[in-house]
Specification:
Elements (H helix, E strand, L loop, with lengths): L1 E3 L9 E12 L4 E13 L2 E8 L3 E3 L3 E8 L8 E3 L12 E7 L12 E3 L6 H25 L8 E4 L5 E3 L20 E3 L4 E4 L2
Parallel strand pairs: 6-9
Antiparallel strand pairs: 1-2, 2-3, 3-4, 3-5, 4-7, 6-8, 10-13, 11-12
Protein name: V-type proton ATPase subunit S1-like
Subcellular location: Membrane
Keywords: Membrane, Transmembrane, Transmembrane helix
Length: 198
């Protein structure tokens, strides 16, 4: 496929040539096309040649990508074919790129195979968040399984606690309890304690 810019200002005589190949793959039982090489021609001479990578689709489909570029910030799907030619002097970027070389019907693109990878940043972030939520859920289930119920069984050894008043040696105070000197002492004879099992 060739794009000829004609007489558009400084682009006069510029041609962008796409070399496409078609191959049959037994595994998918269908033909696939791929962009093999891209050439820039100016005044009928080849100025730069780029090898294309990962630009392919089933022959009955078209190929679409937001950016097809020779720049690293756009994932560099176009690679200079040689270190000695003039390709490194060119920076090529196609925005909203779509191509179909075979089985074109009524002049319209067929269904597009998009270049978005399965592990885009958004998908990776979603997977990480799902993993974190799954770990939190697993920890909560683990804590619920190992939670022990509170058995309300008390084992009490009931011996009533009482405080007995120690009597003074002077027995004369017993006759007049209201006239006590106010010094009273108590002794803890017994105590009650319970065991709670949890």
């Amino acid at each position: 496929l060739s794009l000829k810019f004609g007489d558009i200002g400084n682009l006069k005589g510029l041609i962008i040539r796409f070399l496409l190949t078609s191959s049959y793959y037994q595994l998918s039982v269908q033909n696939w096309f791929s962009l093999h090489r891209l050439q820039l021609l100016y005044n009928h001479s080849i100025q730069a040649t780029f090898n294309a990578t990962r630009i392919y689709a089933p022959a009955s489909y078209s190929y679409h990508c937001e950016h097809v570029s020779s720049l690293q910030r756009y994932d560099a799907l176009l690679i200079p074919s040689s270190a000695n030619d003039l390709s490194k002097l060119w920076e090529v970027t196609f925005t909203d790129f779509q191509i179909q070389g075979f089985n074109i019907q009524e002049g319209h693109f067929a269904y597009a195979k998009d270049c978005a990878s399965f592990f885009s940043p958004a998908i990776l972030m979603g997977l990480v968040m799902s993993l974190i939520l799954l770990l939190v859920l697993a920890y909560a289930l683990h804590m619920l399984i190992h939670l022990k119920s509170l058995d309300r069984h008390y084992e009490c050894k009931a011996s009533p606690a009482y405080f007995a008043q120690m009597k003074d040696n002077d027995m004369g105070d017993e006759k007049e309890p209201l006239r006590s000197s106010g010094n009273e002492s108590y002794e803890l004879r017994n105590q009650q304690f319970c065991k709670i099992y949890i």
